[in-house]
Amino acid sequence: MAIKIKHRDPKSTDFSSTDIIININEGTLFYKTPTGLFKLQGDNLNTTTIEGASSFSELTDVPFLYSSSLQILTDITTDVPFLYSSSLQILTDITSSGNISGSSPTSTFSAVTGSFDIISSTTGSFDVMSKQLIIIPFTFSHMEGNSEVFIPIKNYLDKTSFNYYHGFIPPYDGKLKKITLGPKEANPGNTTLRLRKDAGGDFDLDEAGDIVQAITVSSLVANSVYDFNFTSATFSKGDLLAFTYQHNSSDDMEIMGSLVLEFNTAT
Questions:
Q1: How far apart are CA 79 and CA 118, in angstroms?
Q2: b/e per residue, 147-175, with b = 16+ CB within 10 A?
Q3: C-alpha span between 158 and 252 (Å, rounded)
Q4: For the whole model, what pTM was predicted?
Q5: CB 261 within 8 A of CB 175
Q6: Residue 46, SS3?
Q7: Listed residue (255, 169, 240) closest to 207, CA to CA
Q8: Residue 91: is its pLDDT beyond 60?
Q9: What is the set of domains in the chain, with CATH numbers?
Q10: Residue 243, SS3 per DSSP
Q11: Which of 63-67, 93-97, 204-208 has the highest mean pLDDT?
Q12: DSSP 8-class letter at 125
């Protein structure tokens, strides 16, 4: 077997299956079998970059920078920066007391059960999470027939006109994701929930222009739970908000539920 040194990548005709060629300019090694030509990429130990591989079986306490598609097959435990600039798939766990970052200003790290956004515009660092879910429970006795009523916050009185205990002022920009509720004692039938936002700056939420989005679910029955999923119910920090309920039944009943809000804590 011969080892040959070159300053370029070899062609398959440059050597036999018993030879090995090293490209000393690139740090690559080539060998040939009866079925094909193969290339191995070496790692320059004088740099902090791991060159030339698309997957790794172990990374422990090494500075890690990568600029191409990468799959990591096992756990990562590191006390040093971990950076990447392209596709990254990690099949098990990351444990790090150092930084984990992506080069895109809108980098997203995803998990099997969900995802979280990265807020820093320079490093992609997720030292601070930008999204936070808030759940606000409510209950009220509905005795206003089929009129639209305001859902009380920290109270039990629904009313057809807006009062202070119906209002909510968000500390951040965000959106209403959904309202989950369950009626008791009677069947509401077709039911509409609305997010209202003070459009006129007058702290009055009774006007048609204050409606941000309305969601209707048909044929609600007693002692069952329903989700009203909102898709465009956004608001800004400091907006005066209210949430309203309306069904097509004339019966009195009790309503229990939760408001699910998502805040952007970077605002």
A1: 20
A2: ebbbbbbebeebbeebeeebbbebebbbb
A3: 12
A4: 0.55
A5: yes
A6: coil
A7: 240
A8: no
A9: 2-41 (no CATH), 55-129 (no CATH), 132-264 (2.60.120)
A10: strand
A11: 204-208
A12: -
